[in-house]
């Protein structure tokens, strides 16, 4: 689904979202309430410029519209793999974006992520995974690493990783596996009229402000040990 269709499903004609290159920014109206919208399109690689553009919108919202909800529309192939961005400090720019989103949450802004197309690697980690909660459309694609790349990094045979992926969501790409692990809170499905506004409305009302991903992963069987390990660390002297 392209971003225009997503915006229509979320807000109808009541939005002022604009595309500037691969960067999306603007506002939408839900039940008369303005929502800051930002994100990317075209499977955007997140480089220094895109990271700073998104962070600027978040910081401007904090300064100028206290408490306004923020919606991140996510479609990215991950970080920009280019010498120029490495020399300019892409790691610091992406960290700045993540810290801006975290600051918004701490200042009382409800921040939601929606993967509407593709979410890969660092471009996803520093956006949707730092929001209060991340949601996805059923047709979205989410992964950190393809199994062939995972095999090269871990030095394990692809056949072994393919077998592990059948039973363990941690090894498998796909939006359903991220739901099972708790990284994606739920899938947003349009209603009979094709609208996503009801799911956005429910998420703004019901999304917890504390991080419950590990607990969700344990309850769903996708991450069986993370919640217990976190609890033990918190209890350690």
Plain-language structure description:
The chain has 237 residues and is an alpha/beta fold. The chain has a domain at 3-138 and 187-206: Alpha-Beta Complex (2-enoyl-CoA Hydratase, Chain A, domain 1). The protein contains 11 helices and 8 strands. Strands 1, 2, 3, 4, 5, 6, 7 and 8 form an 8-stranded mixed sheet that branches. A hairpin with a 2-residue loop joins strand 1 and strand 2 (23-30). The longest helix has 17 residues, at 48-64. The N and C termini lie far apart (49 Å). Its EC number is 4.1.1.88. It holds the Pfam family MdcE. InterPro entries: ClpP/crotonase-like_dom_sf, Malonate_gamma.
Features of the shown structure:
237 residues; alpha/beta; 2-enoyl-CoA Hydratase, Chain A, domain 1
Compose a concise summary of this entry.
The protein is α/β, with parallel strands linked by helices and 237 residues long.
Q: What's the helix and strand layout?
A:
Blueprint: H1 3-11, E1 18-20, E2 23-30, E3 33-40, E4 44-46, H2 48-64, E5 70-79, H3 83-88, H4 90-106, E6 111-120, H5 121-125, E7 133-136, E8 141-143, H6 147-154, H7 158-167, H8 175-181, H9 197-206, H10 213-220, H11 226-235
Parallel strand pairs: 3-5, 4-5, 5-6, 6-7, 6-8
Antiparallel strand pairs: 1-2, 2-3
Helix pairs in contact: 2-4
Structure classification: alpha/beta
- The CATH architecture of the domain at 3-138 and 187-206 can be given as Alpha-Beta Complex
Number of helices: 11
Determine the oligomeric state from the structure. single chain
Which residues form runs of ≥5 with pLDDT under 50?
A: none
What is the H-and-E element order?
HEEEEHEHHEHEEHHHHHH
Beta strands, count: 8
């Amino acid at each position: 689904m392209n971003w225009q269709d997503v915006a229509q499903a979320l807000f109808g004609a009541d939005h002022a979202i604009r595309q500037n290159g691969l960067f999306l920014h603007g506002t939408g109206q839900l039940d008369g309430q303005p929502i800051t919208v930002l994100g990317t399109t075209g499977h955007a690689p997140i480089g220094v410029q895109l990271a700073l553009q998104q962070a600027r919108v978040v910081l401007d919202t904090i300064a100028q519209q206290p408490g306004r909800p923020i919606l991140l529309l996510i479609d990215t192939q991950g970080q920009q793999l280019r010498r120029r961005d490495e020399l300019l400090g892409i790691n610091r720019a992406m960290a700045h974006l993540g810290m801006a989103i975290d600051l918004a949450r701490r200042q009382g802004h409800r921040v939601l992520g929606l993967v509407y197309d593709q979410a890969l690697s660092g471009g996803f980690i520093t956006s949707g995974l730092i929001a209060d909660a991340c949601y996805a459309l059923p047709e979205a694609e989410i992964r950190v690493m393809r199994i062939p790349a995972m095999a090269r990094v871990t030095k394990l045979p692809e056949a072994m990783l393919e077998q592990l992926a059948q039973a363990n969501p941690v090894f498998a790409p796909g939006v359903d596996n991220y739901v099972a692990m708790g990284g994606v809170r739920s899938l947003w499905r349009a209603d009979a009229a094709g609208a996503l506004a009801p799911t956005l409305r429910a998420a703004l009302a019901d999304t917890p402000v504390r991080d419950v991903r590990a607990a969700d992963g344990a309850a769903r069987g996708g991450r069986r040990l993370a919640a217990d390990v976190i609890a033990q660390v918190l209890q350690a002297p």
